[in-house]
Amino acid sequence: MRKRRILITGASGLLGLNTAIEAAAGHQVFGQVNGRLLDGKQANFASFEIIQADLLAPGAVQRLLDQTRPDWVIHCAALAIIDACEKDPQQARQLNTEVPRQLARAVARGGARLLHVSTDAVFDGVSGNYSEGDPPNPLSIYAHTKLEGELAVADENPDAIIARVNLFGWSLFGRRSLAEFFFNNLAAGKTCMGFTDVFFCPLLANDLGLLFLEMLDAGLSGLYHAVSSECISKYEFGRRLAHIFGLRAELVIPTSVYDSGLLAARSPNLTLSTQKLASALNKPNPNLSTGLEKLFTQYQQGYPQKLSRMHLSDRGGQI
To answer: Where do the DSSP E strands lie in 27-153?
Structure first.
């Protein structure tokens, strides 16, 4: 894989940050952030250039592309907190639909390649084992706006990759992913809910970032399910994490999602078929078991602490 200029939006978020770290090992990476300023040199990772930009500001998208002149763009920025989208649908639509539309149009005009990150939540989760050809039926504002973003990107830039994902990993502040939720509670000796009736296929964020690079390098276009080849309930995910980290699995309390009191509706069965992407890359997608083992290895090597040292300051706003 030859060295590329890569722009990654949302580079202080869980996916964007870990993708930037992985990509910077072999490419020239520009990481767009808004409210959170970073310094990759503080963490002893391969460094990438941080660019502060509010993607909602008029003309910001085109200025960002002009400044970075990327070969590839990986669009991770989004309003991804599900209940926050329910409380502010207008902002969710701006960030999850309109910004991707503008970016897809501008990238197509400039000749770069775009990978747009979407979500498995576009499905209602009634049946599971969804393929890319199955009709979506989003339940939440977040899922609705992300599906609208998919359609906008496909319309503006037919050569773009649209990747539906689900992920876990270490984040900047250690409280963004489901893995961190379980780890933080279990390490403190606290009980926590684990949904027995919600199934998903999460990938370690670092593995997902590397998968994005492979998809772009292979010249793919269109819609793909970029999730783990292994699926599990959230309850079992918590218990497996507990076992790997040597924590008390009995503190994960089996709970139905319908008894959780969550504001937005959740899709119960988000198992996805990965056959299309596996065929395109001629190998299976990474799996959950390996990802959980890597998560533990990262913990042993101080990876979460290295991420936290990258944070410089907050200016408010979305990432």
So the answer is: 28-33, 36-38, 49-52, 72-75, 113-119
All domains of the chain, ordered by start, with CATH?
5-172+201-229+274-290+303-314 (3.40.50.720)
Residue 313 clears pLDDT 70, i.e. is over it: no
Cα dihedral 206, 298, 81, 53 in deg (nearest 10): -60
Rounded Cα–Cα distance for residues 156 and 153 (Å):
5
Round to whole Å and give the CA distance between 120 and 125.
9
Which pLDDT belongs to residue 258? 83
128: exposed, middle or buried (C-beta count within 10 Å: 0-12, 13-18, 19+)? middle
What percent of the chain lies above the pLDDT cut of 70?
93
In SS3 terms, 71-96 reads as CEEEECCCCCCHHHHHHCHHHHHHHH
pLDDT at 309: 85
The separation between CA 271 and the C-alpha centre of its own chain, rounded to angstroms, equals: 16
How far is residue 43 from each of residues 27, 35, 123, 174, measured CA to CA in Å? 18, 20, 38, 15
CA gap 201, 178 in Å, rounded: 12
Question: How much is the pTM?
Answer: 0.94
pLDDT (0 to 100) of residue 311? 78
What average pLDDT does this structure show over 117-133?
A: 96
